[in-house]
């Protein structure tokens, strides 16, 4: 399979466009895009590189595909975003997906300055995306089985340990977000909050306390390395996730809240609230949003 899509005679190839974009950026974003590109090509040497969606407001976006789209590499002022076209259908045992979590099809990885990229995890996602596109099963055990085996090993190790301090600490993913296995209940949420580094831990504790105080009988879970809050039989109304410089609170039907939460989303129903280190948390306003959100039909993945 060719490494680049065929272009008009004399036009730069997609690979040349990507290299030019890296040089044009000339900062950490260019280095990140270059590294990501190398990892994708290493994970799937047959991946086709393309350059799409050129318009007056955008120079275009690098795209990698193999019998269908694998992912795109969008560059923004403060991040490089890898969007996996069918990410919602992929196992993500490394917990790399940290954006576009509310959609039914795509998932994304936002990489910001200073983030440490899990290179093996990214290559595994690329291979899984290719396997999904081509209809091939991944070699060896399915990802879900591998993840389950890993979880069972971890459970046995923790069971043998008599000293709670000997239990392994959760890994911190991109942006310092804790990696916690998917699970229902308060315990995984508290494990997530306890593993949050620095000032963001207190933000997580306050958010959790506000939800519990405002919504009696709230249902909790950790999904996609984020605490989720909902009501039994009604879906989820709120989640939050740690990034490098802020904690993002997601209201899944935030467009129906008043006043409107300030953060926009590409999903018209969703609104966000970004909490930074020195922000003053308006508990009265957030409590009002939580109360309103809990009375709306929840989001179901």
Give your account of this protein's structure.
With 301 residues, the chain is α+β, with helices and mostly antiparallel strands. It has seven helices and eleven strands. Strands 6-7-8-9-10-11 form a six-stranded antiparallel sheet, covered by helices on one side. A hairpin with a 4-residue loop joins strand 3 and strand 4. It is globular, with a radius of gyration of 21 Å. The two termini are 36 Å apart. The model is unreliable at 1-6 and 137-166 (pLDDT under 50).
Give a quick summary of the entry.
33% of the residues lie in helices and 20% in strands. The protein is an alpha+beta fold and 301 residues long.
**Which band does the percent of strand residues land in?**
15-25%
User: Which class best fits the helix and strand makeup?
Assistant: alpha+beta
Task: Identify low-pLDDT runs.
Answer: 1-6, 137-166
The Cα radius of gyration reads 21 Å
What would you call the shape?
Answer: globular
Spatial separation of the terminal alpha carbons? 36 Å
Mean pLDDT: 85
**CATH topology of the largest domain, what is it called?**
Aspartate Aminotransferase, domain 1
């Amino acid at each position: 399979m060719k490494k680049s899509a065929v272009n008009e005679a004399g036009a730069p190839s997609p690979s040349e466009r990507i290299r030019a974009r890296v040089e044009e950026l000339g900062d950490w974003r260019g280095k990140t895009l270059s590294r990501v590109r190398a990892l994708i090509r290493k994970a799937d040497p047959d991946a086709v590189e393309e350059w799409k969606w050129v318009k007056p407001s955008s120079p275009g976006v690098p795209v990698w595909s193999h019998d269908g789209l694998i992912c795109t590499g969008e560059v923004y002022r403060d991040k490089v975003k890898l969007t996996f076209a069918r990410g919602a259908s992929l196992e993500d045992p490394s917990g790399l997906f940290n954006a576009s979590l509310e959609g039914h099809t795509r998932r994304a990885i936002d990489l910001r300055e200073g983030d440490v990229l899990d290179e093996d995890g990214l290559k595994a996602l690329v291979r899984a995306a290719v396997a999904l596109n081509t209809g091939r099963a991944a070699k060896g055990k399915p990802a879900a089985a591998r993840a389950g085996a890993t979880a069972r090993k971890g459970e046995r190790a923790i069971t043998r340990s008599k000293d709670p301090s000997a239990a392994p600490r959760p890994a911190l993913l991109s942006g310092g977000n804790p990696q916690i296995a998917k699970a229902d209940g308060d315990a995984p949420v508290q494990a997530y909050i306890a593993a949050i580094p620095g000032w963001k831990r207190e933000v997580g504790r306050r958010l959790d306390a506000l939800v519990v105080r405002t919504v009696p009988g709230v249902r909790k879970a950790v999904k996609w390395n984020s605490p989720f809050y909902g009501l039994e039989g009604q879906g989820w109304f709120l989640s939050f996730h740690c990034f490098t410089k802020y904690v993002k609170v997601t209201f899944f039907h935030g467009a129906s809240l008043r006043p409107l939460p300030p953060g926009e989303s590409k999903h018209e129903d969703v609104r966000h609230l970004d909490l930074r280190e020195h922000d003053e948390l308006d508990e009265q306003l957030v409590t009002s949003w939580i109360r309103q959100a809990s009375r709306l039909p929840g989001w179901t993945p």
